[in-house]
Design goal:
20% strand, alpha/beta, eight-stranded mixed sheet
């Protein structure tokens, strides 16, 4: 059986037990849960009941990218997933996504998802987004991120080709890595919602919106030339 490693970066998050419960309730059995405590000073006691069921390590605070990179290096799974400590997987998330990836010979995939509030109540229709063609994927991703990182599953070999998360990017490390991946691998999409993404006042996308906007410009600029080239090549193939 193929092993799936799920990395959970943790920093002062009161919802961590919900995330870990959702991983322990997965229908797929061969799962490695890796919790990286990124210098937390709050809610560490919530992890104690799970210590015999997870791989747990503590590090100095360095941001989500650094925590994910530590987790990837520790991971022994064939596939890598990421679950934020305030989000929740559906019980069949790992099983269905892995089955889908094997069926399509996929190295990189993401799924549909719902948003939930602090009480865990779904507050949106499915909000995952996947363009209809490779050309449209390249066009959209050359401007900004369309992928929820916690909905992804990645063949671990991908990191040998593209490297790890850029730890100098505090907010758009996920976007920047996805751009590197889609330059070499196709992006596949499972339309079934398999993730609950929590919306709350302390989430980074709300607290740091102006910084995220500026960092997004940096990532777009960094990859502009190669993305423009790939878009042109894709147009050429569609219009020989």
């Amino acid at each position: 059986m193929l092993k799936v490693s799920v990395i959970v970066p943790f920093f002062n998050c009161p919802f961590i037990s919900h995330a870990l419960d959702s991983l322990l309730n997965q229908t797929y059995n061969d799962i490695e849960i890796i919790v990286i405590n990124d210098g937390s000073t709050l809610y560490k006691e919530k992890i104690v009941p799970y210590l015999d069921k997870i791989i747990y390590t503590e590090k100095e605070n360095g941001g989500t990218a650094s925590a994910l990179n530590v987790g990837i290096k520790l991971a022994t799974g064939d596939y890598i997933c990421w679950l934020s400590s305030d989000d929740i997987y559906y019980p069949q998330k790992v099983a269905l996504q892995l089955e889908y990836m094997l069926l399509h010979n996929s190295f990189f995939s993401h799924t549909n998802y719902y948003a939930i509030n602090t009480k865990g109540i779904i507050i949106t229709p499915p909000i995952g987004f996947h363009p209809s063609s490779k050309l449209e994927i390249l066009k959209q991703m050359s401007k900004g991120n369309i992928i929820n990182g916690c909905s992804t599953m990645i063949n671990k070999n991908v990191f040998n080709y593209v490297g790890l998360f850029d730890e100098t990017l505090l907010y758009t490390h996920d976007y920047e890595l996805w751009v590197r991946i889609i330059q070499k691998f196709d992006l596949h999409y499972l339309s079934e919602p398999l993730l609950l993404s929590r919306i709350h006042e302390n989430m980074g996308t709300k607290k740091y919106a102006p910084f995220i906007k500026e960092e997004n410009k940096l990532v777009v600029s960094r990859h502009k030339n190669i993305m423009t080239k790939l878009i042109s090549e894709c147009i050429g193939k569609e219009n020989p």
